[in-house]
Amino acid sequence: MPRQLISSGSPFEAQVGYSRAVVQGDWCFVAGTTGMDPDTKVMPGDVVEQGRNAFKTIGKALDEAGFSFADVVRVTYYITDAAYWDVMGDIAGPIFGDIRPAASCVIAGLVKPEMKIEIEVTAFKG
Rounded mean pLDDT of the chain? Predict the structure, then answer.
């Protein structure tokens, strides 16, 4: 089965050499996604809003690939401050509360100082 590349239209995809998502067979791998507003291209200061924006971008990529959040089997959260873990329920709970994929959270520095969260997911349809 051929590989399908999903683009969000970001100029960084060609510049850095990545895709927003890659579909290979029954799998969809969505790249780490930060919280820039996909419509205004503005990075909000609030971590919850950044998380919601990241999930909006991820959801669009999943949909374009023929997947949905219900297909997500793994999610990794990268946050820049451990205190942000306390609001993860506000961000992820409405999406994954019943799906309950395997999850990890890593405290890490991100590419730009205004970025507070990055989320990547793996989905499977088998």
Answer: 94
